[in-house]
Structure to design on (840 residues):
């Protein structure tokens, strides 16, 4: 049951840091959050996870605090932080929509969904709007492909989505009640290629 | 420390999950998949409905059967009658279920809601859940690794033990380490993480290392998009993995283990951690595993413990040296091998990395013996393999079949093939590095060689299905994007190579392909084969298999600037081709006001249109996708 005795090699490069300026309260809280962790146990990712759990991201100003705790340099630490896509260094938007980038979703039309989300919410994938109201987050497939194509919001899965559903969802999020002249299309999903006959009238009228 | 027999007796004594007289047993599967469609709400509703009606019943949480397409699933069992599985049982259907299956005297089946019956024969028209006919998704399945999935409570070590759990470990402790490895070698087990290397051989390497401490590492990064078999096992039967790792520790002399789970899998983290805690409480992990100090399994006894490490979102951390770097807190960059992990692994100590499913096979091999293990499978490959089926199939889910099973049995049989009216185009096995199998080869055996012969890999268990509405060039763009995005950046061949491949493919898909492009891509692939790790080496596989099997489709893009499936955005545009009473709806839905009404008719403003397909969803007869270049 021997646990690691040797610490990660980069700790040897550690030199003590000057006290860091910043939000004193935040830094104190972060110190407390990671107090029981130790560099010898390789618990840096745990530290990131805990901080992100508490604040929704890892505030940049906490990096020196974590570095001190783990006896490494902020540069080393930033290098590790930057490597992992699920650890974020900017605060999340007020409303975050997570978009699955996986293959099942792709084959079922996720690109169309992405396009309308970007267009209506007014931000690119992996960005927030300037006012921080909306954010789009690219996520990897977690194996809930029976709902493809899907988005997630506040842990809730929404799918399989048609493009029309997605547009309604995005408009609702934006608070744009949209005038709907006709009832919903009912079940036609994105990418379901074959044009369905819409009504007898138009079949006769529109054939030419 | 209790012995195995004492633990077993204790487990049998603990209340077993069986229905009692006048007391049905209700099981609700709660996993990532089923929670996504409301299993937690179903569970709450079942409890509430029973309480409101004052009905007696036991309610139990289980893992899942792998029937993703039919989640949430509720099982109702009455004493002396076969249990019935109910599918798509969302909370709103719970009152109907409880009324029909629990409240009425006749302890009946509710056929409208029923999915399958746990018996060999149909019951009131409900098909049996059996491998030899019945529910289609079960046809041909051989449930060994998944024997407990959907059946037991993943948080109950007693249920695991009472079904033979930890017997393999107990047996192993009565053998020498060499005997254990021989048993694993004899079974023929090879790694399920992608490389298909002999597990017994790997363990021999670690056993031969004479530096301590040694480590057992479980690769639960499952980064291949479209693979979710490891997740199912961790959520449904976590002790199987704990037991497999402990046996590995004993056989190789490792004293500590890490289970590295990807960040996208919070529930497996919870369930694995709970399993480790329980195993420790029962003396199945810790300083003296199963009282081995007294029984003399090894001088001083066998000590082994485990810890879960949560990843943070990086595909190359699934590569074993990247994973080790990530456990060590660094950037998870793959390193050059040798040294192999067995020589210098985590913290430079000898280590063994195996996939979740590889470890999960081990307790069964030890418990039932190598001969039993090898009783299913093909000529050259013994045992079973789990696959996750997704994409253009009617039934998405996870199944376990003997190695060598024709892929068509899984894709067309169990999965039901593509949706009504569409034709199978291809199957994309095992992740971004694996390639694309054309429909004409869908009958190949699920074992490594047929894939290798075609310049592909079988991979770790994902099977993503394409139909004729999908475009192969589009899929190749996705995989090269993924490879580029996830490249760790150590080798120029890899990060620049994937970037170039992506640029060229994107150019082709926008109608600006050049006749020199295929040659450049082949050259890039050749160069990339010299990258440091398999990520860079295999990143061009998808493009290469496109050359081999989808050349016509590629050439159509390249020379005629046409996407036959009308997926590549740069090659199509939306047009109003008929009049229809649905066009006002199309106008209303358009996110960019590109559907314009003029003099009573409609047209699409191409400058505004973002090609999102919503208008065509609304008015599929009136609006069509037409080729941008050349004749429609
Ligand atoms: C880029 C890359 C990603 C990988 N991802 C995984 C993974 O998610 N899970 C896994 O078990 N193996 C993965 N592997 C394979 C591992 O390097 C290693 O071969 C495997 O974990 C060994 O276990 P096994 O022998 O039990 O298959 C990956 C390999 C590469 C090159
Ligand atoms: S091949 Fe790619 S992923 Fe692998 S080490 Fe090189 S740059 Fe990193
Ligand atoms: S494809 Fe989308 S953006 Fe273009 S006209 Fe139709 S609804 Fe509007
Ligand atoms: S591809 Fe989106 S959930 Fe699997
Ligand atoms: S239902 Fe369990 S894996 Fe999908």
């Amino acid at each position: 049951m021997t646990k690691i005795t040797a610490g990660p090699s980069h700790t040897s490069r550690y030199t003590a840091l000057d006290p860091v300026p910043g939000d004193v309260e935040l830094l104190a809280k972060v110190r407390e959050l990671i107090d029981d962790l130790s560099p010898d146990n390789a618990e840096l990712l745990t530290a990131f996870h805990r901080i992100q759990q508490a604040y929704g991201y890892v505030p940049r100003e906490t990096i020196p605090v974590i570095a001190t705790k783990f006896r490494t340099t902020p540069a080393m630490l930033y290098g590790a932080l930057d490597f992992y896509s699920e650890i974020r260094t900017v605060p999340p938007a007020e409303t975050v929509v997570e978009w699955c980038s996986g293959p099942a979703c792709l084959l079922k039309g996720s690109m169309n969904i992405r396009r309308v989300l970007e267009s209506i919410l007014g931000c690119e994938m992996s960005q927030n709007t300037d006012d921080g109201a909306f954010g789009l987050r690219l996520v990897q497939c977690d194996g809930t492909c029976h709902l493809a194509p899907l988005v997630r919001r506040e842990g809730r899965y929404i799918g399989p989505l048609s493009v029309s559903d997605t547009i309604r969802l995005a408009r609702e999020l934006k608070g744009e009640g949209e005038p709907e002249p006709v009832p919903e299309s009912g079940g036609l999903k994105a990418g379901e290629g074959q044009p369905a006959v819409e009504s007898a009238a138009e079949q006769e009228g529109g054939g030419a | 420390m209790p012995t195995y027999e004492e633990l077993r007796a204790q487990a049998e004594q603990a209340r077993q999950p069986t229905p009692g007289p006048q007391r049905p047993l209700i099981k609700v599967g709660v996993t990532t998949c089923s929670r996504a469609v409301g299993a937690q709400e179903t569970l709450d509703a079942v409890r509430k409905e029973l309480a409101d009606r004052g009905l007696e019943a036991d309610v139990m949480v289980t893992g899942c059967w792998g029937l993703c397409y039919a989640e949430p699933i509720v099982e109702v069992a009455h004493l002396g009658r076969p249990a019935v599985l109910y599918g798509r049982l969302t909370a709103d259907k719970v009152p109907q279920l409880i009324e029909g299956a629990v409240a009425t005297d006749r302890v009946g089946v509710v056929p409208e809601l029923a999915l399958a019956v746990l018996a060999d024969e149909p019951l009131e028209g409900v098909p049996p859940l059996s491998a030899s006919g019945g529910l289609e998704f079960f046809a041909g399945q051989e449930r060994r690794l998944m024997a407990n999935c959907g059946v037991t409570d993943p948080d109950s070590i007693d249920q695991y033990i009472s079904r033979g759990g930890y017997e393999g470990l107990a047996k192993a402790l009565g053998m020498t380490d060499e005997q254990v490895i021989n048993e694993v070698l004899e079974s023929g087990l090879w790694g399920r993480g992608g490389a298909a290397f002999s597990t017994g051989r790997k363990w021999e390497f670690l056993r031969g290392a004479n530096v301590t401490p040694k480590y057992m590492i479980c690769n639960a990064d499952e980064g291949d998009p479209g693979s979710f078999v490891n997740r199912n096992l961790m959520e449904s039967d976590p002790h199987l993995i704990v037991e497999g790792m402990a046996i590995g520790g004993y056989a190789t002399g490792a004293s500590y283990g890490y289970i590295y789970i990807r960040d996208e899998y919070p529930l497996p983290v919870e369930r694995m951690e709970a399993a480790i805690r329980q195993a420790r409480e029962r003396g199945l992990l810790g300083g003296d595993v199963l009282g081995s100090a007294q029984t003399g399994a090894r001088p001083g006894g066998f000590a082994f413990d485990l810890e879960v490490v949560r990843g943070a979102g990086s595909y190359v951390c699934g590569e074993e040296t990247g994973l080790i770097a990530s456990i060590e807190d660094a950037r998870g960059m793959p390193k050059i091998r040798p040294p192999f992990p067995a020589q210098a692994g985590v913290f430079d100590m000898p280590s063994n990395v195996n996939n979740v499913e590889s470890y999960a096979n081990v307790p069964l091999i030890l418990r039932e013996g190598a001969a039993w293990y090898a009783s299913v499978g093909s000529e050259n490959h013994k045992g079973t393999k789990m696959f996750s089926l997704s994409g253009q199939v009617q039934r998405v889910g996870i199944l376990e079949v003997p190695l060598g099973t024709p892929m068509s049995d899984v894709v067309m049989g169990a999965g039901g093939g593509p949706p009504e009216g569409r034709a199978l185009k291809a199957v994309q096995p095992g992740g971004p590095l694996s390639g694309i199998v054309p429909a004409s080869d869908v009958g190949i055996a699920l074992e490594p060689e047929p894939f290798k012969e075609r310049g592909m890999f079988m991979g770790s268990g994902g099977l993503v299905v394409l139909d004729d509405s999908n475009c192969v060039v589009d899929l190749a763009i996705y995989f090269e994007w993924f490879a580029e995005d996830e490249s760790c950046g150590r080798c120029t061949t890899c990060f620049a190579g994937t970037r170039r491949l992506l640029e060229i493919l994107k150019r082709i898909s926008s109608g600006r392909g050049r006749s020199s492009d295929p040659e450049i891509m082949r050259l890039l692939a050749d160069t990339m084969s010299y990258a440091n790790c398999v990520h860079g080496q295999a990143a061009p596989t998808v493009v290469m298999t496109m050359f081999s099997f989808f050349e016509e489709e590629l050439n159509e893009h390249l020379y005629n600037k046409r996407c036959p499936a009308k997926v590549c955005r740069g090659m199509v545009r939306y047009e109003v081709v008929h009049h229809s009473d649905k066009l006002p709806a199309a106008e209303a839905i358009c996110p960019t006001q590109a559907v314009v009404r003029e003099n009573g008719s409609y047209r699409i403003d191409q400058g505004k249109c973002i090609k999102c397909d919503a208008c065509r969803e609304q008015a599929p007869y009136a609006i069509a996708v037409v080729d941008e270049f050349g004749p429609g």
